[in-house]
Specification:
By secondary structure, this protein is of the alpha+beta class. The chain is 23% helix and 29% strand. It has a 3-stranded antiparallel sheet with strand order 2-1-5. Strands 3-4 form a two-stranded antiparallel ribbon.
Length: 73
């Protein structure tokens, strides 16, 4: 199972990276079917996420999430 961390801890990290010019894409796991999903909008965190596989709405704020960091150095 992928690692998900508390929503507000992730928010701090994403803010710091975004301020440095990097792109972070929020990732979460559907609480119904277990599919791992990635949000399309960089540097934006959503408190709920819709699963494109089963249609379930996951409470990301409660469940936690992670992010994918995109860096060009």
């Amino acid at each position: 199972m992928p690692n998900d961390y508390p929503f507000y801890e992730i928010a701090v990290a994403v803010k710091e990276y975004a301020e440095k010019g990097f792109s972070c894409y929020q990732k979460f796991t559907c609480s119904a079917c277990g599919q791992r999903l990635t949000m399309e909008e960089p540097n934006v965190l959503y408190k709920e996420g819709h699963c494109d596989k089963c249609g379930h709405i996951t409470n990301i704020e409660k469940q936690g999430c992670n992010y994918m960091l995109h860096m060009i150095v």
